[in-house]
Structures are given as structure tokens and as C-alpha cells.
Write a structure and sequence with these properties.
- This protein is mainly α.
- It has 2 domains: about 5-465, no CATH class; about 470-745, no CATH class.
- It contains 29 helices and 11 strands.
- The chain has helices at about 10-25, 35-45, 55-65, 75-110, 120-135, 140-145, 150-170, 180-190, 200-210, 220-235, 240-245, 260-270, 275-280, 310-325, 340-360, 365-385, 410-435, 440-445, 455-465, 470-480, 500-505, 525-535, 565-570, 600-615, 625-630, 670-680, 700-720, 725-740, 745, and strands at about 490, 515, 575, 580-585, 590-595, 600, 620, 635-640, 645, 655-660, 670.
- β10 and β11 form a beta hairpin.
- α4 crosses α15 (about 340-360).
- The two termini are about 55 Å apart.
- The relative contact order is 0.09.
Length: about 750
């Protein structure tokens, strides 16, 4: 097969079609989970959570700068990066699928040979079917129209390496073909500085080289070039300590190194030795991932071996995600075994058929695709060693034994690849239905089988599209606006933190607010960063650029950081169990902790921050649960919109404040401030009257608004409001309830 006959034009067309689809369904702004974190860190060249993803951060920044003249918002630019990388991956997989199908026909159609025009058309149509299936598989599509993770860049690397493997098999005896191997090695290692997913093609690539030409491993010149490629690729991780030392405002893990030697040791040993902070970052030490041989649901202090029970559940969890890919919209249920199942089994069988076809094409095609499919699915399931799946865990499973969200995005490469395998299977089944020939009339009669390639496009559209979805951006905006000027806001997790980072660092909204992630207070690096960034010289000012007029600008900015503790004193704080009663004075009040109370490092630092800040900075909690409850402060928490302000006073004596019913939390509620926020300031795009809310793990977001309006209705009633007013507020609450139940389709 000559290079001139490779369908590069069709491959580019497939990539362009996928890109257009993603643009049409593109998110117009940020979304939940890690989306805001990655958009923000790409924008400011910050350090996201370990392992830091330096390649993504730099590529994202460069990409955003290149698109800046377009005038598109930063979030749209970064979302387009996900769309572009996924679409280009589709183009490279197209070339792989065509080459395999062409080889299959070369082996199967000796009688007709190149004389039949369909000898070329069938592989092209099969590759197009694969492109359509691969790009519209639910998880692929859902991750390609918003930059929630860094995985579309990894999938692009997998696709390019796959094409290099196929090309090397064809050209392995040609001079200079070794550079294809070196390039593949470089791309995998460089890609690992984005995410280790980039290394997943390595077993398949190695297997092909061993089968086709094991002697290359004795080629010293080639091995030296490959070694240089490894050293050069992994060196991108030096970005982490260099940028971290400059103290960007998002600097997770703070992987600063005191010497180049220590940094180099950590980089080239993959975190096994060297600079401790960088090594901990590269190995994701803070997450405490259990061994692949340990049951992840067992007690971490007394772990149990990994048994067949949990492994069986993990495999079922993968099948659940596979079940979503091809006809997600046929059932609102997350679990397998409904109207989606026939299509799931059909596409499972078509993918297997595609693998069988690759066996006739070339022995190395089957070895590569089979090994890659196995690595991206079953082997990855074993390596990831997840706890019980978010939506299919047994009802008896404790919360700490379950994943906090669905993890289908880890298998985006598997589903993208399987779409192409199924497309190859469609081509094979098409020819089979035509009686095993390439007769144009018979092929035309059996052509309806090609309609299968359009099933995911039609069925997944409503579930995968993010067009017009501002829900995460507006949720973060509403939460930030619930905080008074120069306020401190204690948050509890990704979804009440990262959207706020996005708004502050990308859109420049309410940068005066100090957002504090409670869990990070237990680390050694985060409290020091808070102290640094809230120093009066670096405190960002309160401005009312939007002209909301909600808050009067304070007479002066804070004159001191959020705590008076020094870096050295912060480092010395550790968990204690009180040997006697302990009273902490907070403003005009005090809170007492009885003997035997366990105060962790984070809780003690939070207390110090509150104690040192109350005079100059209003203190807020994103939830009256969590930190407020663990510090016994919920009795002084006054609900204002989506946040609760700490007021060390008798709230029952405060004008305009009422305590809502116990079944609504029993919180003290500032009705007028909450009313102004809810009815005049807040934005609700995508948060109420929604048709589908695909991610069940974030349903608590619309529940917040439903609950807020219920509290407002109760407070209005208790403050002698009219019955009509209460009914109006309850009606608004019901609009959020529709979304909180999964959308109109879920409640039908």
C-alpha cells in the first residue's frame, strides 16, 4: 500500500466532522468537578491537583493565547482544546481502521483484487462508521465538549501512537523506519507529563515490535535515541517546581525543590527519590491510593486482600459504563439491564467482529488492537481498583466504600477505540450480509446495516450535549455573591470550590473573597499559601464592577492576613485530643470543646483563622454542616443566600432573622438578604426546569436552590408574610425540584 493511497482527506474530514459536532454541543463556560480547576490553571499557568499535569497546563495556555484574537471567552477556548484533541484522535484512528480493513479485504478478496472500486470504498465506509461511533460514544462525546479532565489530550496521544505502530509494521524494513519507534516512545513519555494514561499503548506497541522485529532492541543507535526521547519527554515535569516557586495563586501540592539535583532525581525516578515535595506530587501521595492487591473498601489501617467479590463488582461497573456508550438516551436508569441492553450487546459483538477482521489483515494488527483494547479496559479496571460504583453499589455499602462520582471518564480511550472496532465490525457484517462479496448490487441491498453507526449520535445527543449549560458557572457566581466584601468562605469539596476559582482567576469576579478548602488545611503547604496570598500587600480589592450595589464597599481593606500564626507556627500544628475542657474566644462569643475532643490539624488552623479574622473579615461557610458543625459553630451561622455567615451574637434578637423549621435544617435565616440575593442577584441558567441532568453525582447542586426557596417560603410564613407570597416561593422551589430529580425526563 503506497502512502498516496492512504485516505488522509477522509481522515481529515472525519476529524472535522467530529470537531463540528463537539462545537455545536460545546459548553459555553465551565462545568463541575475538575473543569474549573483545569481552565483556571491553564489560564494562569497554575499547578492543579497532583500529579500537576504540566503538559496540559502549558498546552492549554498556548492554545488559549492562539485563540485570544477570536474574542472567545477563555472557558470556550479551553473547551475547544478538548474538542480539537478528541477530534484529531478520531482522524488518526480513522487511518488505523482503514489500514486494517484494507488489509482484511486484501486477504479475503483475492479474486476481485484492486479491480473493484468497492475494494477501497468498503474500508473507507467502515472507517467512517468507526469515526461516527467512536466520536459519539457517550463518554467520549461528553468529555469532548467541555474540558472536564485532561484525558482527551491523552486519547490523542494513544491514537497517534496507534497509527505510528501500524505505519511501522508496513515500513519496518525501510531505512529510517526506526524514527517511527522513537517518535512513539517520545509521545508516550511526553504524554505521561499530562497523565499516565498516555503510557497505556506501551504494552501493545512493545508486543508488535517483539513479534515483527525484535532485533531493533540490539540497535545501539536506535536505543540511544529512544533513551534521549525518554529523558527529553519526562523533563517537562521540571515545569512543576519552576512554576510552583513563583507562588501562583493555585499551587496545589506546592512541589518546590531546593536544588536542581533533587528535582532531577524526583523527575527521572518518577517520584521514588529526590525532592520530597515534587516526589509526593508526582506519585499523588496525598490521595493514599491503596495497592492493586488490596480491597479498596476495607479498613485502610487493617486492609484486606483484594478478592473476587470486589473484582467482580469492578468488572460490572465497567460494563455499566460500556452500556452507556451506545444508546444512553433509551433509559434514564444508570444501571444495566434495561432497553439499552440489546444495543449494548450488538456493539459489543460488532467490536469483537472488528478484532476478528483485524486477524485476517495482519497478525500484528490483531496483536496491537487486541492488546490495546485489553489494556484500556480489563487491565485498567484491575489497575484502578475502584471502590463500589457510585450508582450500582449495594444499598448496604457505606459511603466511604463507594466512589464519590461516576468514573467512566477513565475509560474514554477504551470507548473511543471500541467505537472504531465496532465500525470495522459493521464493515465486516455489511460484506457478510452481501453474501461475502463486493458486488455493488448486493452491497446496496445490505447497506441498511450501516444505519447502526448513527445510533449513538441520535440516542446520546440529549445526554451528551452541553450547549447553553451555564449551571456550574452560575452556581459558583451565586455562592460567591453570597459572601460579604473581603469575606472568608470555607468550602467542602470540588464543586463548591473549583467554580469559584474559575470565576475569580478567569473572569475576575469577587477576587476579594478568600476561598478556603477545608480538606487542604490538613496539608503542610496550603495554610502557608493562604497566609502568603492574604497578606495586605497581596490582598485583592473588593470592587463592584458589575454595578450590583449589593454590598457597600468597606472603608478599608484588611490590614493583616487571615491568621497571625507564622509559617513556623503553622508547621507545628498537629492533631490533639484534649486532656481538659478548652474554650476558644471568637469575637464577642466563645465556643467550648469538652475533654476528649479530637481536634485535627485542619480544624485547629480553621479556628485560628476565624479567631484572627473576625474583626476584619466576615467568615462564611458554604454549608452549615462540615466544618461549622465539627467546630460546634452552627448555632451562630446565619444563612444568607447560599452561604452562612458566622455571627457570634444572639441571632434570635437580630432584626429580620428567623429560625426555619427543623425539617429544613433549623437554621437561622436572614430573609431579606436571601430574598435580594435569590430574586435580584442570582443567575439560574440550566439550574431549573431542566430536561436532563446527566451527572447524578452533582444533583445536590439544584437541591441547594430547591432547599433555599423552601427555607425562604418557611421564613416568609414565620414572618407573617402573605399566603400568596409563600405559594409563589414554593412554586419556584418546585422548578428546581424538577432538575434536582434528574430533569423532566427522569420524573415523567
Amino acid at each position: 500500500m503506497t502512502e498516496e493511497r492512504l485516505p488522509y482527506f477522509h481522515a481529515a474530514g472525519a476529524a472535522a466532522a467530529a470537531f463540528l459536532l463537539y462545537v455545536v454541543t460545546l459548553a459555553p463556560t465551565t462545568w463541575f468537578w475538575d473543569t474549573s480547576e483545569y481552565i483556571a490553571t491553564a489560564h494562569i499557568l497554575g499547578i492543579p491537583h497532583p500529579p500537576g499535569n504540566p503538559l496540559f497546563v502549558v498546552v492549554g495556555k498556548v492554545w488559549s493565547l492562539l485563540l485570544a484574537p477570536s474574542g472567545l471567552p477563555v472557558a470556550v477556548r479551553i473547551n475547544l482544546l478538548a474538542a480539537a484533541t478528541s477530534a484529531v484522535a478520531t482522524g488518526f484512528f480513522f487511518l488505523v481502521a482503514f489500514r486494517v480493513l484494507k488489509g482484511w479485504l486484501e486477504a479475503e478478496e483475492e479474486a476481485e483484487g484492486d479491480g473493484s472500486i468497492w475494494f477501497r470504498r468498503v474500508p473507507i465506509i467502515g472507517a467512517w462508521a468507526g469515526a461516527l461511533l467512536g466520536s459519539t460514544a457517550f463518554t467520549v462525546w461528553n468529555q469532548s465538549n467541555v474540558n472536564e479532565k485532561v484525558y482527551t489530550l491523552s486519547v490523542l496521544g494513544i491514537a497517534v501512537v496507534s497509527w505510528l505502530a501500524v505505519r511501522w509494521v508496513d515500513r519496518k524494513e525501510e531505512p529510517g523506519s526506526g524514527w517511527l519507534l522513537v517518535l512513539a516512545v517520545y509521545l508516550m513519555v511526553l504524554g505521561s507529563t499530562n497523565h499516565l494514561m498516555a503510557l497505556l499503548p506501551a504494552p501493545a506497541f512493545l508486543a508488535v515490535v517483539l513479534i515483527e522485529k525484535p532485533g531493533v532492541f540490539l540497535d545501539r543507535r536506535l536505543m540511544s535515541r529512544a533513551t534521549m526521547a525518554v529523558l527529553l519527554g519526562v523533563s517537562f515535569n521540571f515545569f512543576l517546581p519552576i512554576r510552583s516557586a513563583q507562588q501562583p495563586i493555585i499551587n496545589e501540592g506546592e512541589p518546590v525543590c531546593e536544588s536542581f539535583a533533587g528535582a532531577a532525581a524526583a523527575v527521572y525516578s518518577m517520584g521514588r527519590v529526590g525532592c520530597q515535595a515534587l516526589a509526593a506530587n508526582l506519585t499523588r501521595e496525598q490521595y493514599g491510593k491503596p495497592s492493586i492487591f488490596t480491597d479498596p473498601t476495607s479498613d485502610s489501617l487493617n486492609p484486606s486482600p483484594r478478592g473476587f467479590d470486589i473484582l467482580g463488582h469492578q468488572l460490572l461497573n465497567y460494563f455499566q459504563y460500556f452500556d452507556w456508550q451506545w444508546a444512553r438516551g433509551l433509559s434514564v436508569s444508570e444501571v444495566p439491564g434495561n432497553t439499552r441492553l440489546p444495543f449494548t450487546l450488538v456493539f459489543l459483538g460488532l467490536g469483537v467482529w472488528g478484532l476478528v477482521a483485524s486477524r485476517s489483515s495482519h497478525r500484528s494488527h490483531l496483536v496491537y488492537l487486541g492488546t490495546l483494547a485489553f489494556t484500556l479496559s480489563l487491565a485498567l479496571v484491575y489497575y484502578l481498583n475502584f471502590r463500589y460504583g457510585y450508582s450500582i453499589a449495594p444499598e448496604t455499602a457505606a459511603a466511604n466504600q463507594m466512589e464519590v462520582r461516576e468514573r467512566d471518564y477513565f475509560f474514554i480511550g477504551s470507548f473511543h477505540l471500541w467505537g472504531f472496532l465496532a465500525g470495522m465490525g459493521i464493515a465486516a457484517s455489511w460484506r457478510w450480509a452481501a453474501g461475502g462479496s463486493l458486488n455493488p448490487r448486493k452491497l446496496a441491498l445490505s447497506a441498511p446495516i450501516l444505519i447502526l453507526a448513527f445510533v449513538p449520535l441520535v440516542s446520546n445527543w440529549a445526554w451528551a450535549t452541553r450547549s447553553g449549560d451555564f449551571s456550574a458557572r452560575d452556581w459558583g457566581y451565586n455562592l460567591l455573591q453570597s459572601v460579604e466584601p473581603y469575606g472568608i468562605l470555607f468550602t467542602n469539596g470540588d464543586n463548591d470550590t473549583f467554580p469559584l476559582w474559575y470565576l475569580q482567576e478567569v473572569e475576575g469576579i469577587r477576587q476579594d473573597v478568600t476561598v478556603i478548602v477545608v480538606q487542604y488545611l490538613f496539608t503542610d503547604w496550603y495554610p502557608r499559601q493562604l497566609l502568603y496570598h492574604t497578606h495586605p500587600d497581596r490582598q485583592r480589592p473588593f470592587t463592584d464592577d458589575e454595578g450590583l450595589g449589593l454590598y457597600e464597599p468597606p472603608d478599608a481593606a484588611p490590614t493583616r492576613p487571615i491568621t497571625l500564626l507564622t509559617d513556623a507556627e503553622l508547621d507545628q500544628v498537629s492533631t490533639v485530643i484534649l486532656s481538659q475542657d478548652y474554650t476558644v474566644t471568637l469575637g464577642d462569643g466563645a465556643v467550648q470543646f469538652p475533654e476528649g475532643t479530637r481536634l485535627g490539624r485542619g480544624e485547629q488552623i480553621a479556628l485560628a483563622i476565624i479567631q484572627d479574622s473576625l474583626e476584619e473579615r466576615p467568615v462564611h461557610f458554604a454549608s452549615t454542616g462540615g466544618l461549622a458543625r465539627s467546630l460546634s459553630l452552627e448555632g451562630w451561622a446565619l444563612r444568607q443566600g447560599l452561604a452562612s455567615q458566622l455571627r457570634m451574637e444572639d441571632l434570635g434578637e437580630r432584626a429580620g432573622v428567623v429560625q426555619v423549621a427543623d425539617n429544613l435544617g433549623g437554621e437561622w435565616f436572614d430573609f431579606e438578604r436571601s430574598r435580594i440575593l435569590a430574586e435580584e442577584i442570582f443567575l439560574y441558567r440550566g439550574l431549573r426546569d431542566r430536561d436532563i441532568w446527566a451527572d447524578r453525582a452533582t444533583l445536590n447542586i439544584p437541591w441547594h436552590f430547591y432547599f433555599l426557596y423552601l427555607q425562604m417560603a418557611d421564613a416568609s410564613n414565620r414572618m407573617s408574610g402573605t399566603e400568596e407570597r409563600m405559594e409563589e416561593l414554593l412554586g419556584e422551589a418546585d422548578r428546581f425540584l424538577i432538575t434536582a430529580q434528574g430533569g423532566r425526563r427522569a420524573v415523567q
